[in-house]
Design a protein that fits this description.
Order of helices and strands: HEEEEEEEEEEEEEEEEE
Strand order of the largest sheet: 6-12-11-8-9
Largest sheet: 5 strands, mixed
Number of strands: 17
């Protein structure tokens, strides 16, 4: 193929919003200190068999909001929120709207996962390691607070997002978003329902941006 047809195809792709999604954003989110680990007493006896882990340290979710080219949308995969060592694992699970989530029990005792959150109310009932609860589809954006009816110390959060571009920080607050499409968007860092930082960003093809939260 000669160079001229290649240039014409590139121009057509750009005009149709098909530019390569190869931009990236990285940075650090300032995380709160980890709370003291404490297992609350439970009204049930002999219901913890084995090790009880400490809760997951604080992390944040960084995500891009805006109008994305249709060619860059993705089909959400099936996600998992396990019950492991009598904690939710992970303690914070970010997913895209429409994602199906499994809730496997990896402990030797029973669990009973439920949520009263408005975007998704459910109660899976009691189930053991060898039993498989229903797979749930989270079709509305929002914050889902998770609990176990048997083990009152267990807490978990599912953050349902209307975007395919998100990342969970590591324990030091580092994050990186890759394969982003060019355009003007809002970048947000979610720590909890009361703490959400945001910054406007403009991405050009191949851009590499550094954004820390909170900003200067």
């Amino acid at each position: 193929m000669s160079r001229r047809p290649q240039l014409i195809l590139a121009s057509l792709a750009a005009s149709l919003g098909l530019a390569r999604a190869d931009s990236a954003i990285e940075g650090v989110v300032r995380l709160p200190p980890a709370p003291p680990a404490a297992v609350m007493p439970t009204p049930y006896q002999n219901n913890i068999i084995g090790q009880v882990s400490a809760p997951e340290p604080p992390t944040a979710v960084v995500y891009l909001e805006g109008q994305f080219p249709a060619s860059h949308t993705t089909n959400p995969p099936v996600a998992k929120m396990e019950q492991k060592h009598y904690q939710f694992a992970p303690g914070l699970l970010p997913i895209q709207t429409g994602t199906a989530v499994e809730f496997p029990n990896l402990d030797d005792g029973y669990h009973n996962v439920f949520s009263y959150s408005k975007p998704k109310r459910f109660d899976l009932g009691r189930y053991r390691k060898d039993e498989k609860p229903p797979v749930l589809v989270f079709d509305k954006p929002g914050v889902i607070k998770m609990f176990c009816e048997i083990h009152q110390h267990m807490r978990g959060t599912i953050l349902v997002l209307d975007t395919p571009y998100f990342a969970k920080t590591d324990r030091q607050g580092n994050y990186r978003l890759e394969h982003l499409p060019p355009g003007k968007y809002v970048l947000k860092a979610w720590l909890d329902e009361k703490t959400v930082w945001q910054r406007p960003v403009e991405l050009t093809d191949g851009a590499r941006l550094r954004v820390d939260f909170p900003g200067p």
